[in-house]
Amino acid sequence: MGPKRRLITDTFKVVKRAKKEEKQDKEPAAPEKEKDLLELQQFDLDWRYGPCTGISRLQRWERAELYGLKPPQTVRDLLRRSGEETDYTHCLWHDYPL
Amino acid sequence: MIINKIQIKPLNLVYIPITERLNTTMFSDFTTQKEGTLMGQPSADCPVFDRVQPTYSGYSERFKLGDRSFNRQYAHIYAVRLMQMRDILTARAKQTWGEKVPVRRLCDLQMGEQCCIVGTIFKHMELQPSILKEISEEHNLLPQPPRSKFISASDELILEDELQRIKLEGNIDTPKFVTGSVIAVFGAEKNDGKFTVDGFCVAELPPQAPRQPLSSDRFVLLASGLGLGGSGADSLLGLQLLVDLVTGQLGDLGEQSGASRISRVLLAGNLLSHSTQDKDSFNKAKYLTKKTQAGSVEAIRMLDELLVQLVASVPVDVMPGQYDPTNYTLPQQPLHRCMFPLSTVYPTLKLASNPYQADVDGVRFLGTAGQNVGDIVKYSSMDDHLEILEGTLRLRHMAPTAPDTLGCYPFYQKDPFILEDCPHVYFSGNAPTFQSKRITGPDGQEVLLVAVPDFSRTQTACLVNLRTLECEPIRFSSFTAEDDEDNEMNISH
């Protein structure tokens, strides 16, 4: 037997490299983020504060405050704390077109 | 040539007093001709009449658009409108049906229980034009006759709150209501799931700031629908007479001293004629219309020349209207300064928004160019502009049909058309005839309602006395007002 002949049709094993773990470090721990988002989604789904599409969560919160509907303070604190990420700033259906 | 005509026919001015009342001070009382000043020898001393200077502050900020974001839906306006009106109407309902009346939301409604609901009216109209209907029936589309009204006997009223809707029946006059009005109804839900109305109430007039008494008579001149660029050249004579009257170039000393009491001129929309909006550029091939100039260009130039005569002598507020070159949706933003190269250098020219709100000598003016009223004419059984004007004041909403059938910017935080405080003069422009009326609100609010007539059709403007809050039409009748009317009718469809 000569040297092993390799054909162009041979398949090779897909080698996955382990992803860098940096991203995970920056964000709050996954379960905490999930908890925050859940609270924000509950705020989106509360009909008393009016429609949530097309405006940011903060705008909706401020409107509810303006008309004395007493939106939860924790939502505002959360929105202030979290950055510019649309997961936080915009409502549940933000990704869907109008 | 126009100036010749004025001197030949100075009696073209006709003052029509509304009612014969004692102790009233109309504009016509100031313009009685003095004997011998017109036909006599020129005298050496020329009297000078100083124009009265009113205090003025505009409050149109709430009709200014900041960011123009159109990726919102109109649901926000209706939600905000209900949020803003709910407390007012709940209080009004308790006043009407007693403190103990249960105010329910539709989701808490119990069958057969007498209660009160606050909600937004939606009128289901078979004849209301709908783009979806037109598309779906495109293949066998019957051409619909042009209608002036879209109401029919099969119309139904539906009341909506934040979550649900319910059909209304009983003691409620369906054709008079329009979509978007927030009201409170009293009654009970019946077995068939409809709500039987025993009575309803509206928000009534908002609170009014007191007016400082004025020591002298001053007037504000209201005119609308100048219709420049239209086919009727006769209206130009009337217009020139109007300008000359206001600037004091007409009549004798008596009339001139009367003119000096006009402290402000307010042009309430439709400065340009409908015919300046030719649709040629949309329908025809581009190479055919490439070299034609838009009709509005010449008309705006004429307007500038008229305005420069006025603003040199008196402060003028210019509101845009339906046919004017600004945005179509309410609130219409002020016309751009660059369109008036001659008159814009005067600080007396004020380009205002539509709706318009301002305090002149402590008298709060609020009004529109008439789109809101014209739209309610189409979608309700009411025809009388004054009646509609009063209705919107009692609803506390200037344009209930926006955004349903009237173009409107998608607001989300505030509905600017809700009246927060009561004006002293509430007007709408481009009415078929002049009408005015004083009404008194439940808390003693005094409001003068004015339907400002279309000038190009009626040759009529009106003067509001700021001291007594009375209104008087002033007509510049020229020879062929009837012929004009025919032309206008053709243009409008």
From TrEMBL, chain A:
GO terms for biological process: DNA synthesis involved in DNA repair; DNA-templated DNA replication. One of its GO terms (cellular component) is delta DNA polymerase complex. It comes from the Eukaryota. Pfam families: DNA_pol_delta_4. One of its GO terms (molecular function) is DNA-directed DNA polymerase activity. InterPro entries: DNA_pol_delta_4 (IPR007218). This is DNA polymerase delta subunit 4. The lineage of its organism: Eukaryota, Metazoa, Chordata, Craniata, Vertebrata.
TrEMBL record, chain B:
InterPro entries: DNA_pol_a/d/e_bsu (IPR007185), DNA_pol_D_N (IPR040663), DNA_pol_delta/II_ssu (IPR024826), PolD2_C (IPR041863). GO terms for cellular component: delta DNA polymerase complex. Residues 220-435 form the DNA polymerase alpha/delta/epsilon subunit B domain. One of its GO terms (biological process) is DNA repair. One of its GO terms (molecular function) is DNA binding. The keyword Calcium does not apply. Residues 73-198 form the DNA polymerase delta subunit OB-fold domain. It comes from the Eukaryota. It is found in: Nucleus. It holds the Pfam family DNA_pol_E_B. Keywords: DNA damage, DNA excision, DNA repair, DNA replication, Nucleus. Belongs to the DNA polymerase delta/II small subunit family. This is DNA polymerase delta subunit 2. It comes from Anguilla anguilla (European freshwater eel).
